Amino acid sequence: MRLVSCEIGGFGKISAYSHTFREGLNAFCEDNGWGKTTFSVFVKAMFYGMEYSRKQGLSEREHYRPWDGGVYGGSLVFEVGGRRYRVERTFGKKDKDDTFALYDDVTGKPSEDFGVNLGEEIFEVDRDSFGKSTFIPQEGLETTMTDSINAKMGDLSTAKDDINNFDRAVKAIDEARKNYTRRSKTNTGKLEIMKRQMRECNELLEQQEAMNKGYEERTELLEQRKRSLQELEGKKAGLAEQIRMLSRQEQSFGQYREKKRSLERHLADSAGLDAFFAAGIPKEDELKDMENLERRMHVARREIEVKQEGLPPQEEIERLEMLFASGVPEEADLSQWNLWAGRLKELRVAGESHKLSEDMKAHLQEMSSFFERKLPQEEEMAAAEERVTELIKLEGRADDAKTRYQTLLLQRDQMERSRAGKGGLSGLIVCLFLCIALAGGGIAFRTLAADSAYSLPLQIVCFGGALLILSLGCWSFLRSKGAARKAAEELERQVEEAREALERCENLREEQRASCKAFLSDFLLPPLDNMQQMVHEVRKNLDLYNSLRQEERKSEQEVSGTLEELADLQLRLYTALAPFAEVYHIDLYHEPQEEEVLRRLQRDRTVFENYRKDYSEMLSRTEENREMEESLQAFLGRFPTESGEAAEQLKEIRSKYDRRFALAREIRELKGELSRFEQEHQIDESRGSVEELQKQQDELDAEVAELNRTIAQDRENLSAMAEELERFEEAQTRREQLTEDIEAAQQRVKLLENTARCLQMARDSFLSRYMKPLQEGLEKYRSRIDRNAADELASAQMTLDMDLSVHISYLGNSRESDYLSAGYRNLIAFCSRLALLDVLYQKEQPV
């Protein structure tokens, strides 16, 4: 593996910097503060990324964020396995904002040989182990053993199932043990919780005897109070009988007193309302205006809340203001820039292929997606248009048939009402009256003028006329009934025919509609007003699709664009877009993403314009609402309301306003009734025997109510105590269960402790395999670097323990490396690092 070159866009104080690595050792001899440590961290970040830390304080990600606020990241070219790659990374505020890309540096195409965990796949160690082995920071020469180093040294890095994750296992076991034994107040262990619950059960069971005694005492007290209640009920019944007897005598005077008391109460209430309206009684129109004003204020507040919720976040607003600091581009400018961008794209691909413009390709792609399920032929399209036209005609015919059907139903109802009202009896009744009159005349001639010579002819005329009129009346009545029945039958036949015609039209319409829906179901259409518009939309899209396909075939035969036009157009467009691309962190001259810039600019312009409009409207509505609130508060300030909300205050004012006028009316009525009663009866105010008895009855009622309340409270207390007694039984059962659970938990804790000891023994046994190569490497590099060591240090033996800590053995005594000077301690740590690298990378041998 070899580093070839790197480019740093922005990393710490280093920006726009490139470097090519030479064969062998690369030394950076720069002044303090140049960024040598920053450069080394950049190389590590290209392989392992930036670690995201949730700890408070300055994290590594924030420490190396570019000072100028530019692009945070860069690229690194390296060789491994005989191939050359280029890795590109950028870093955001969080790890989810980071980007990663790997390319074959020879072909320039993306590579999938390695993933985002590039360092782990190449060096076969994780980030922490890389920092404690291959990567040697300025103030971190000393190293320690990690799981990844352990696995790499044991040649287990390629077998994931066999990696010895000792630290993780020990931590998991220790965490499992703490889950039982932890005594923290915020996160208590299971065993401690069970012990605490056991103590609570014991404390609760100690109270059982006292609780049983208290339950018996309260039961006896309840029985005593029940007996007292029975005695009071007896007294109350006797007193009620006395009151009933006296009330018969004083019934009329009792009504008078009751009305008088009502009058006094009404007067007191009226005085309170007069005090409430001391500042003046509002007019009905004024009160209605204030109620309408409050409703308008509520609507305005809701509109302001909706506007405020629709505003972008503050960070987005600041970004937009910075983006449009020099002004918002006009729609014409954006259209022109979009045209230039489209032309640029056409010119770039002119020599390679003859493709459609981006807009046309987008339209073609859109139309291809639209006709993805089915591309209708011209005959099928024409048939669909004919069906939808026929559907429109059928809908018109159905409406006409429905109108005719409803008209006939109305005529039928009118005919039935007409027949029910008249019934043809009026003519018959007239005929009967005439018959009776003529018959009466004939009888009169027969009885009164029987001897007259004209009596018999007149009798014949009268009786014959009566018979003739009666016959004609019956014949006319029967004839009119028959004609009405025939007319009704004819109208009923027309109604039935109209109904059948309406059903046929609706059935045909539904068939045509189903056919149109079946045709339209193959296309993704937006909701439109009717099917004719949908079919028209399909026709329009089909024509556009055919036109685009023809244009696509035509464009393949054309060649356009020149380099001179490309350069001039690119210069003009990039000059116009440069201020916006800088805010988007896009370098147009290295990354030709003018369409992305324009897309973002168009979107941000719309968002910014909407924000300014909504914000202005929100301020206007807020000012209007403030003025309305001042008017409303000025009105509400005139009345001593109790509620806090304006709506509640208005409701209270309205209630008291209506109550005041109702009381005035009732007071007038009561005064009139009392005045009339006083004029009709002799009022004796000294009569008070019934009132005294009622007062005694009220006192008894109060005692009975108090005693009932006390009895109810005692019953509730007894019920609660019964529940408490049930808790004692539950506590006894719970204590038995807790005893078993505590014993099982203690056995579990003991098992976890034994497991941890066995893991430690296994780790020590595993690590002892490769301690000898590490020890030999330490002595080798120490002898090479420190050739002129003092005699006492030369004879001292340096050893490494299983945690890669250095110990000194001199004259039979063992010391920690802290006894050495800082410089010599760093030398020994550096030698141990080199020895560790030899063991980790025996094939590569980087040192």
From TrEMBL:
Transmembrane segments: 425-445, 457-478
InterPro entries: P-loop_NTPase (IPR027417)
Species the sequence originates in: Candidatus Pullilachnospira gallistercoris
Keyword Transmembrane attributed: yes
Origin: domain of life: Bacteria
UniProt KW keywords: Coiled coil, Membrane, Transmembrane, Transmembrane helix
Protein name: Rad50/SbcC-type AAA domain-containing protein
KW Transport (keyword) present: no
Coiled coil: 191-249, 283-310, 481-515, 660-762
Lineage of origin: Bacteria, Bacillati, Bacillota, Clostridia, Lachnospirales
Gene3D superfamilies on file: P-loop containing nucleotide triphosphate hydrolases
